[in-house]
Every structure is written in structure tokens, then in C-alpha cells.
């Protein structure tokens, strides 16, 4: 149970960070797409921040759990590698937590990871409104996967790239693919990249601990 709670907590933190990286207009509810939404944990975080969302997942079992939990988002059963089935410019942004790496696998002989990634990214590019972003957190197996994913996203029309939070920590290191649709912009700053910043956070935490 403790492990599950820890996983939920990590998922929550990653979703909050993904929303931050979307750089949405402040205090404005928007329409977001949750890719590989699973049981709706990330969707609930989107709800808490006042947004409306639609989730897509390949697992019927996970979507059943999401329905049991009565999440507010609309849920769609679908394989991201087949592309996402939405009208052009439907969404103001997209998030994905821990799902993208699965598209690098060839689970069937007919699966070509590069083609599946390209189909996914092309359809995602089409269904995002211009100027919006997609932020996809994933766990790459190796640098080849990072390159494969990034190359297919850029080929589909996106600009942007990878933001690695806490690059020097084995445990806290997180990969976020930040995709932009409205021309080239500077990538957001990664967390935990400067000694000083990490130190400030650590001393703040110590202060808090003292007060408890």
C-alpha cells in the first residue's frame, strides 16, 4: 500500500510539473488532452486546477478503474500508436505521464516504433491549437529512445525538445518532452540543475523540519 501511495504521489508531482511546463494562461480554464490517462490520476490533477480534460488509454482495465473513481474527464479507448482521433485544433494543450516509452516497443510484428511514433505525433500536432504545447513525461530505456522520440516529434512539425529535471540524481531525474506548435521558443529551465538552487531548496526544507 505504501508503495502504491508513493507511486501516486510521484505521478501527482509529475503531472503538476507537466502543467507548469505547458505555460498556460493564468486563471483560465482550458481544454486538455491526457495521453495514456490510465486510472485518471493525472486527470484529477488537471481538474483540481480548473481544467476540462479528455483521456485516451489502451487499457480497458485502467479506464474501468477511472470510471469507478468517477473522474470528470471523458475517457476514450485507443492505441496512441494508431494516432489520436480528434478534430483539428481541438485542444489547448496535452499532457502525458509515463506512457510515451511504450510506443518504442514493437509488441506485434506489424509494429514499427518510428512509424507509430510519427503517426502519434502527427495526429497530436493536428489536434492542438496553434501556440499550445504538449508536455510528455516518459522513462526512456536509453539515449537511442530519447533520440527516436524527439526525431519523430520534430518530423511531425513540433519544435521544442527534452527538459531533464534533476539530471544528477538517479532517483529524482525526470525526462519531459516539451513540444511547441507556434514556432521556436526557448525551452523551459530544468529543475535541480544548479547547485545553488538545490541547496536553497534543501535549506528551506531543513527550516521547515525544525518548525515541526
TrEMBL record:
Origin: domain of life: Eukaryota
What is the protein's known function?
S-adenosyl-L-methionine-dependent methyltransferase that specifically methylates the N(7) position of a guanine in 18S rRNA. Requires the methyltransferase adapter protein TRM112 for full rRNA methyltransferase activity. Involved in the pre-rRNA processing steps leading to small-subunit rRNA production independently of its RNA-modifying catalytic activity. Important for biogenesis end export of the 40S ribosomal subunit independent on its methyltransferase activity. Locus-specific steroid receptor coactivator.
User: What are the UniProt keywords, alphabetically?
Assistant: Cytoplasm, Methyltransferase, Nucleus, S-adenosyl-L-methionine, Transferase
What CDD domains does the database record attribute to this sequence?
AdoMet_MTases
Q: Which GO terms describe its cellular component?
A: cytoplasm; nucleolus
**The keyword Methyltransferase belongs to this UniProt entry's keyword annotation:** yes
Stored Pfam families: Methyltransf_11
The protein in question is named 18S rRNA (guanine-N(7))-methyltransferase
Q: Which residues form the Methyltransferase type domain?
A: 33-108
Recorded hits in Gene3D superfamilies, A to Z, give: Vaccinia Virus protein VP39 (3.40.50.150)
Q: Where in the cell is the protein located?
A: Cytoplasm; Nucleus
Asked if the record carries the keyword Cytoplasm, the reply is yes
Organism (species): Xibalbanus tulumensis
**Record GO biological process:** rRNA (guanine-N7)-methylation
Please list the reactions this protein catalyses: a guanosine in 18S rRNA + S-adenosyl-L-methionine = an N(7)-methylguanosine in 18S rRNA + S-adenosyl-L-homocysteine
Q: How does it assemble?
A: Heterodimer with TRMT112; this heterodimerization is necessary for the metabolic stability and activity of the catalytic subunit BUD23. Interacts with GRIP1.
Tell me the protein family, please: Belongs to the class I-like SAM-binding methyltransferase superfamily. BUD23/WBSCR22 family.
Gene Ontology molecular function terms on file:
rRNA (guanine) methyltransferase activity
Its main localization is cytoplasm
